[in-house]
Amino acid sequence: MVVTSENLKAALSDQIKTWPTQPGVYIMKDVTGRILYVGKAKNLKNRIRSYFQAPEKLTPKTRVLVKKIYQLEFTVTHTELEALLLECNLIKKHRPRYNVRLKDDKNYPYVVLDFTHPFPQFRVTRKISPSPALRYFGPFSGGIRDISRFLLKTFQIRDCSDSKFKNRNRPCLNYEIGTCTAPCVDYVSQTDYAKQVEEAILFLKGRKQALVQTLRKQMQDASDKWEYEKAKSIRDKISAIDRITEKQNAVLTEKQRDIDVIGVFEGDQELSIAVLFIRNGFLTGRRTLKIPVTLDSIEQTILEFLQQFYLVSLIPDEIWVATDFEERLLLEKMLGERSQKKISIRVPRTEQPLRLLGMAYENAKLIYLDQKNKTAISGADELQRVLNLPEVPQTIEGIDVSNLQGKNPAIALVHFSDERPLKSRYRLYYPKTVEGQNDFAMIHEVVTRRFSKPDPPPPDLLLIDGGKGQLASAERALKNLGVEIPILALAKSRTKSAFTRKNVEKTEERIFIPNRKNPIILKETNPALRLLQQVRDEAHRFSVVSHRRRRKKMMLDESILKDIPGIGEATRLKLLKQLGSLTAVSEAGFETLIDAGLTRSQAEAVLDGLSKRTGEEE
């Protein structure tokens, strides 16, 4: 069900009485259709109504959100668990502004053994793909290369792809240097290879004592049979295991379990979180994150964090937290369903676990204070102050036009999230309605094309590379679409009376914003200017690289068409512009070429010339 109105409170007064009281998920959107927040509720009617109570009863962040709401959607579920699962997936998919947003690209590496093949493969990965044929170990916060080398040298498990394995007819270099037993060419039986894998699993699970006992027995058996070379090899393996584990200290006497210990330190409108990874009683690593406090409470923020964190991380047997929260048991069920095993989220009260929780808390606190001391105000925070924005711009998009005398123009759009480039959101546009060199018209066209659809959602700030004219073109496009987002233009520094005297005077970078006559001038060291320059320069780099690539391809296409009799330069350019590429020209039929503006004789010449070239290439 969808409820929309420019005055949502008025619409609610008529409709709230009929809204469901069942559990479910609700989605809040702004006027552009961008998802602002995804939440779940035991009682949808009561939960949604709570957002529209007296403003003084809401948190400052919630008040800002409520002012932006234009549309509400909700989905009823049978149970709270279904609501929690749906909420988690929607947050992961849409990454709403007011929910906890974790990035996948910072995951620590895991070791995975792939059992889809009779001879399992070893590899390192940063992504978890649930499958009964894959066994994950970790995460490892550091030294993954050393661990990989150790595993290959000590247990000699293959790390080649299945395709390479299948096509080998003689051992590869790994066999020659002693890091693989060459199962690809039957130098080792499947039974013996399985023993290698079992030993590696014991090591990765931290069961050193059981592994060493097994190896000592093998060494004794080999010695009894006078197989002294084999016994020596096993002895060296035991020594290697002792060396790599001698620096590890057990932090828990009770072992055989994987445990994550969560420490939380509350900072200024954000939480610093440390996760300690305990594997079989040993501390194998940690991860630290900083996240803003969400709308409702710290408890809700921690719940959302755990939901999102274990979407992309291996779920341990137990998760330890310092304080209980209302939906702990519900989260246990959700993580249990996802991992297909029993999960326990505990609030320990005994000495050893409390000591580890204290360690996690101190890690979270130290990371927060260290980063606060090292970094002054961030570029995004300073942008909010300088531009008087309602919120800190967490997402910024930059647009840059690149062309050479109006030929082969390319317009690049780059996307920054939390002051870092997000290349999966980069886009490259080629003008469809603009003739010649007209940067203003191209910016107007690209802004129109970019924001005419709600997906992907608009950024918190739009940057145009240029001055007042480019800014005005983008403004007109946004106004025509009815889209309201903060926008600015950044003009490069320039020199006065360049090359006319030795002492050339240089101007600063200029920031143009709507409804202001004079540009904003910031110091070169200002973090806001640094961030804008980074976005602008990245857009320019992406634009230039893409432009050069396209121009090179066009020149190649032109050179091929140049050899066709009766096709001059103007016809070549017209044909490539109409159809887009030489590939499209070669796939076009006679009528398509006529529609592109060629005469009958020219179309026949093109088809004949390209067919001859194809025959030569074959």
Total strands: the figure is 22
CATH fold-level name of the largest domain = Nucleotidyltransferase, domain 5
CATH architecture of the largest domain: 2-Layer Sandwich
Radius of gyration: 31 Å
Low-confidence stretches: 614-618
**CATH homologous superfamily classification of the largest domain:** UvrC, RNAse H endonuclease domain
Mean of all residue-level pLDDT scores:
81
Question: What's the main sheet like?
Answer: 8 strands, mixed
> Helical region count?
21
What is the beta-strand fraction?
A: 15-25%
* Dominant shape: globular
Helix content: 40-55%
Question: In total, how many domains does the architecture comprise?
Answer: 5
Structural class, judged by helices and strands?
Answer: alpha+beta
In whole angstroms, how far apart are the ends? 59 Å
What is the CATH class name of the largest domain? Alpha Beta
Tell me briefly what this model is.
This protein is of the alpha+beta class and 618 residues long. The chain contains 21 helices and 22 strands. It folds into five domains: 98 residues, GIY-YIG endonuclease, CATH 3.40.1440; 97 residues, no CATH class; 117 residues, Nucleotidyltransferase, domain 5 (2-Layer Sandwich); 165 residues, Nucleotidyltransferase, domain 5; 55 residues, DNA polymerase, domain 1 (Orthogonal Bundle).
